[in-house]
Design brief:
The structure is a homodimer of 260-residue chains. Chain A has 260 residues and is an alpha/beta fold. Chain A folds into two domains: 93 residues, 60s Ribosomal Protein L30, Chain: A; 146 residues, Alpha/beta knot (3-Layer(aba) Sandwich), CATH 3.40.1280.10. The longest helix of chain A is centred in the last third of the chain and has 17 residues. At the A-B interface, helix 7 and helix 11 of A face helix 7 and helix 11 of B.
């Protein structure tokens, strides 16, 4: 049995805490934090974590938790801790008894055929949901422009359900930096509310980028100069859709056309 | 100037508090609670509220708030209150300075051509987002089967962005009660993960119901007996989509086909 970690001065506790709290720290260390049985399982599948803290009796309570426990007990950087200490680190209300710090995956897109660009999407739940939808719709690359919620924050990671391990992500860049990378695309489309072009009139089988903007203010002026605007026609008196919904409807229209 | 309400024994305070907290109370009184400038504006547009509490100095801070303030000051059941008392009633972290209790709208669908059935959707944010998408996609009726989050809870109302005033809703019923109402439909489709029928192979121009199930367990066994299963093909290693995303992708495919 390993020693139970009870001190907040422990190196694993300090690392995880600073990575949970600080975007700057995540960028400097090139690491992020995953929580819960399912996401730590995924993390172990892809790479070796820098730190794992776990509450053995909590993991022992479920078959899936027991499987994960026997895995983490073989990890060099894993240590048991108390429910109280884990709760202090956790970003969720009820911790599942495990949290880990893992290196940012180094993924590069094999081709660029469908790119999602987030232009000021603020809500971490929306950003994470869009990453999950992006993976399911076959997106090759997600770009988070400056002003978008940090793609690697705990809330985004949780909502994305493992997409961080499988979809190449570029974070915190501006158009000047990202445009050369997207130069081979045929077109850039931005979701807006007043466009005359409806989203199902677009040929999404071309190599394209889709830009989804801020929840309240939409896409930036700079995006409007680069992109064709497309809109989702709406019935009723609805003024707009939730940003994650609008982006997902567009991404799955692209996926639908690409299956034909 | 009306008297400032500072006591939690005031009738408006008591009414709003019990309606915020209790589903039973909402059903008994046939009323629900709306919060914030935009939703109270909408409520006033459709009907006369039973109670309005507002913080004048907070509403005065914005042009839109000032417009609403002059409206509510003419309402018989509206009274100014303190920020502290409003914060106690509020379901949100930062109140916009206005909250109201309004009667449940009595809406009946003119026709039944596209019906959304929620079968155990648990997260109020998902339910509200689905109501917002349902309105935008032209849904005639939303049915909340027993086991679904209360369609009239404050969190659902907030996420639905006014759909409650415009989309007919039937809450807390079982299939036995709702089937006769849906007898004229051509088919019922349920979103599941393993179906062989993909959602874009369905003719959504027929009169149909779409069933969206629980976030973890999908639709109920009873639904599976009544419905054809449809699935959204997914790339990557994604196991499932968020329930609100999956439902919205299906609803907007229906809307897309119906525009043609």
């Amino acid at each position: 049995m390993r020693d139970l970690i009870t001190s907040t001065a422990n190196i694993h506790v300090k690392r995880i805490r600073s990575l949970v709290r600080s975007r700057k720290e995540r960028h400097r260390e090139r690491m992020f934090v995953v929580e819960g049985v399912r996401l730590v399982e995924e993390a172990l599948h892809y790479q070796s974590p820098a730190s794992v803290l776990y509450v053995p009796e909590q993991l022992q309570a479920t078959p899936r938790g027991r499987g994960l426990l026997s895995q983490v007990e073989r990890q060099p950087n894993a240590a048991p801790t108390t429910p109280g200490l884990l709760a202090e680190l956790s970003d969720v209300e009820t911790s599942q008894g495990i949290i880990a710090a893992v290196p940012l995956p180094l993924l590069t897109p094999p081709t660029l055929s469908l790119v999602l660009v987030l232009d000021g999407v603020q809500d971490p739940g929306n950003v994470g949901t869009l990453l999950r939808s992006a993976e399911a719709a076959g997106v090759d690359l997600v770009v988070g422009l400056a002003g978008t919620a940090d793609l690697w924050s705990p809330k985004v990671v949780r909502a994305a359900m493992g997409a961080h391990f499988r979809v190449p992500l570029v974070d915190d860049v501006d158009w000047a930096a990202v445009r050369p990378q997207l130069a081979a695309l045929t077109a850039i489309y931005a979701a807006t509310q007043q466009a005359t072009l409806t989203y199902d009139q677009v040929d999404w089988r071309q190599a394209v980028a889709l830009v989804v903007g801020n929840e309240a203010n939409g896409v930036s002026a700079e995006t409007l100069q680069l992109a064709h605007e497309v809109t989702i026609p709406m019935a009723g008196a609805v003024e707009s859709l939730n940003a994650a919904i609008a982006g997902s409807v567009l991404l799955f229209e692209a996926a639908r056309q690409r299956r034909r």
